[in-house]
Amino acid sequence: MTARRKAAILGGGVIGGGWLARFLLNGWDVAVYDPDPQAERKIGEVLVNARRALPMLYEVRLPEEGRLLFCDTLAEAVADADWIQESAPERLDLKHTILADIGRHAPETAIVGSSTSGFMPSQLQEGLDRPGAVLVAHPFNPVYLLPLVEVVPSTRNSAGSVERAVEMLRSIGMFPLVIGKEIDAHIADRLLEAVWREALWLVKDGMATTGEIDDAIRYGFGLRWAQMGLFETYRIAGGEAGMKHFLAQFGPALQWPWTKLMDVPDLTAELVDTIAAQSDAQSGHMTIRELERLRDDNLVAEMRALKGRNAAVGVLLDAHEKTIAQRGAPQAGEPLETIARIVPVDWTDYNGHMNESRYGQVFSDAADAVLALIGAGEDYVAAGFSFFTVETSIKYLAELHAGALIRVETVVTEGAGKKLRLSHRLLGADGTVHATGDQLLIHVSLETRRACEPSGAVRDALETLATSHSILRPYDPGR
Amino acid sequence: MTARRKAAILGGGVIGGGWLARFLLNGWDVAVYDPDPQAERKIGEVLVNARRALPMLYEVRLPEEGRLLFCDTLAEAVADADWIQESAPERLDLKHTILADIGRHAPETAIVGSSTSGFMPSQLQEGLDRPGAVLVAHPFNPVYLLPLVEVVPSTRNSAGSVERAVEMLRSIGMFPLVIGKEIDAHIADRLLEAVWREALWLVKDGMATTGEIDDAIRYGFGLRWAQMGLFETYRIAGGEAGMKHFLAQFGPALQWPWTKLMDVPDLTAELVDTIAAQSDAQSGHMTIRELERLRDDNLVAEMRALKGRNAAVGVLLDAHEKTIAQRGAPQAGEPLETIARIVPVDWTDYNGHMNESRYGQVFSDAADAVLALIGAGEDYVAAGFSFFTVETSIKYLAELHAGALIRVETVVTEGAGKKLRLSHRLLGADGTVHATGDQLLIHVSLETRRACEPSGAVRDALETLATSHSILRPYDPGR
Q1: CATH no. for residue A404?
Q2: What global pTM score does this model have?
Q3: How much is the pLDDT for A465?
């Protein structure tokens, strides 16, 4: 970015506030005008959320925040603005008044985006002196996180102004989907409305509750749609025979008496050809096998991400895992088998192998298994105590790839008072040693976040284990 | 699990094969019957995908695979089965024939699930001797990954048999959504059909291509729906005023001329009350602020997971990141600032702080920044060379939490020939040192995966940097 740019935000509700946050956190100056006396409080609440979440998406620091100015008049807000975003309530007369007012005060070069979810740009442009300055820029909640923005010009917008709009929206991390033809409700909201209508029927007829409908979405096709949309997903369902085969196989089902709303376009040869050709253009560079692999890897990564949050589908995975997590009882004087698992695809990096940090994670998880064994697991943490790692050394001896079966053997090399020292080795399926690790942990109070003595039961269990391991040697005696 | 259970899979296409994989990989014995001569090959292809992906979801190893048996007759397949899954083509006469055949050969205690996406259980049960054994168990592709399965009994299924079905499906990691009332196409497919119909209209009318529709889904509401469904998302949109407010605000929009299909249920006071009460039951234990935080954290984790895969929304994030990744030129004789970023929420663990393995990741990323600086970045990797870490030591000095700004300073302590040694320190926003790290890397050929000399340009850049850093001391001289 060269000179700092300025956005004017007209209307500071959830949508306007989200726009504001996205511009501001990407380094734009932002001026707001909203006659609501609560606007500053409401925007502040959106900003708290956005400041927490948006910067987390990136591995680099975002540019310094721009300046935020609350204005008393629309004229003040739009002065010198590069982008003006109108997010007023969904009433055409109100939008017309605001857009006309913008026309009187804004720089001629400013682009005016409307957040309207329903109106077409030509409707918004009616009666304006400079209709070509206004287009639809329809975002999705939360605006500071979701990249989609539907950009809808009319015939009165120049190609150059659409290009400038796209460039500015990209510069704040959005995905401008330029919609070539005007249509009520654009594209995404038409799909959303279709689902919403069907969902209302299901609730009204007592077929399902709101919670059941949400579960039917988030444990099924919602996961698919976060990474591929509708057509690419169905292309896979059609198999090697492709999209035409899918349409031939499933097309007729559309005519069945499945829903309340039955007006379906005829699947003429022409429509089938159109869809097949568009699908080829979209996904034809990958075979169905490659698409399947891509889909599966994306689903695994997504589902594991939610597992890490202990949310949505992750809760199910965790519950299932508990039913399969079984480990043989430890044998006195034998190393503990602390980990037996598969390397997941989200642990690999650009070198095509397990990232070095994940060796550290495996050993950290191995330490958790030791802690569970000595009674310092989940319940102990809930009671306010834990062990924190203070030092780790890892020697990387051989690579690992996604899908590999790995095991960790762990020896307690020190276990007395506040100190716990572990020696790990990470083994492949064939017994190859892929890494060794030495890890020193200290017992802490989670209240003071400082070292303290463990409970009597934990101390005794730890000492018993350490004593039984005293005949074993650390895995990396060279350290 | 106690005694090993047996599933019979009738029909081994994409859906039947997916069922088979899920049972088998969860330790069930599986017998398949499919008259298609290509069935074994097709199932083999699904199994390759499933064996790769499903075990990656868990931090523990799945139970040992059951035995897989291809059978020449249906009778042989269903003998002694605990669960029988019918995934024949969607023709009622065909399904009736198969279900009657199952009735003649299966144990009386077996549960028979049908993968039908359209038929109601009472339709399937017509004319059967033991109708109560059969219910709908409708899964979603890929069956081995997506947990949703719609379980639909009729009035002829006993409560006990539904309970047993639910227990068995849960034991293989699925989420059985029991649908109390029979309905054509159950629940999820009605929502999918509604979207599909609308999407076909959009393509037919030339409003959008298949690729644009997919983008409108996966960069917008698809991300939302992977973690919350429709109603919980809209509950947030309604703000503190709740679901009733949302319905009052957006309800009228449903009557607008937005789509081809306009039959909408009246939002009577009764329907509004029903939806509001169900939404309270589902999400009322959280305030809107809490729901927003949950949504944002889930979205961040999901989007970052796809970023790690360089897929879908992750591609957009990566492209945007490149436009903001700017670092001042390194000053000779000064430590390099290799990292400046925010701790994302997916890096925290059950102790509420950044997991120890992520300190390793930060230092690994810091090393990448050094590599990019000496010309050993992405292009160099693409050309077949890289540096692999062989040894790391980390001292953890202070905790870090999600949202914290962190920086890393790096000193090149050794840089000659194949060897690169780095000393890092991780700093908080106030200059506190949170960790120090020592990291030894070796230059490798990505073809042989063995050590080799770097290219002349990389070697020279490395030696220049190392020389300029020779006046600096490692951050942890005590090592």
Answers
A1: 3.10.129.10
A2: 0.88
A3: 95
Summarised one tens digit per residue, pLDDT across range A75-91 is 999 999 999 999 999 89
* B186 HSE (CA, 13 A, CB side): 31
Q: Which stretches of B172-221 are DSSP H helices?
A: 188-204, 210-216
Q: Which of A49, A17, A51 is nearest to A33 (CA)?
A: A17
B121 and B235 part of one domain? no
CB < 8 Å from B in window 406-425 of A: none
Residue spans of chain A under pLDDT 70:
1-2, 240, 249-265, 267, 325-328, 477-479
Both B45 and B164 in one domain: the answer is: yes
Regarding whether A291 and A335 lie in a shared domain, the answer is: no
Q: How many CA within 13 A on the CB side of residue A256? A: 17
The three-state secondary structure class of A93 is helix
Q: How far, CA to CA in Å, does A458 sit from each of A122, A334, A411, A454?
A: 72, 20, 17, 6
Q: Chain B window 168-187: which residues touch A at a Cβ cutoff of 8 Å?
A: 170-171, 173, 175, 177, 179, 181, 183-185, 187
Chain B residues with CB under 8 Å of A304 CB are 56-57, 305
Beta carbons of A324 and B60 less than 8 Å apart: yes
CB-based contact, B460 to chain A, within 8 Å: no
A252 in reach of chain B (CB within 8 A)? no
Are residues B455 and B388 both part of a single domain?
yes
Contact A57 B279 (CB under 8 A): no
Those residues whose C-beta lies under 8 Å from the C-beta of residue B464, and which sit 6 or more positions away, are none
Give the model's confidence band at B463: pLDDT under 50 very low, under 70 low, under 90 confident, else very high: very high
Spatial CB neighbours of A119, under 8 Å, sequence gap ≥ 6: A90, A92, A95, A136, A184
**In this complex, is the C-beta atom of B240 within 8 Å of any C-beta atom belonging to chain A?**
no
Bridge pairing between strands B134-139 and B148-152: antiparallel
Give pLDDT, residue B92: 94
CB-CB neighbors (< 8 A) of B118 in chain A: 253, 256, 258
The 3-state DSSP composition of chain B as helix, strand, coil percent (nearest 5) reads 45, 20, 35
Cβ neighbors of A437 (< 8 A, separation 6 or more) are A359, A360, A363, A392, A393, A394, A395, A422, A423, A424, A425, A426, A476
B69 touches chain A (CB under 8 A): no
pLDDT band at B279 (very low <50, low <70, confident <90, very high): confident
Q: Does A46 share its domain with A152? A: yes
B147 and B227 housed in the same domain? no
Mean of per-residue pLDDT scores for chain B: 89
Question: How close is the nearest chain B Cα to the Cα of A270, in Å?
Answer: 9
CATH number at B90 reads: 3.40.50.720
Interface contact B271, partner A, CB < 8 A = yes
A460 touches chain B (CB under 8 A): no
- Tell me whether residues A305 and B305 touch, CB distance under 8 A: yes
pLDDT tens readout for residues B331-365: 888 999 999 999 999 999 877 899 999 999 999 99
Angle, alpha carbons A354-A358-A359 (nearest 5°): 95
CB–CB contact A321 B58 (8 Å): yes
Q: Does residue B89 fall inside a structural domain?
A: yes
ipTM, two decimals, is 0.88
Q: How many residues does chain A have?
A: 479
Q: Are residues A139 and A97 in the same domain?
A: yes
Tell me which residue range forms the domain holding B83: 6-178
- Could you give the number of structural domains in chain A? 3
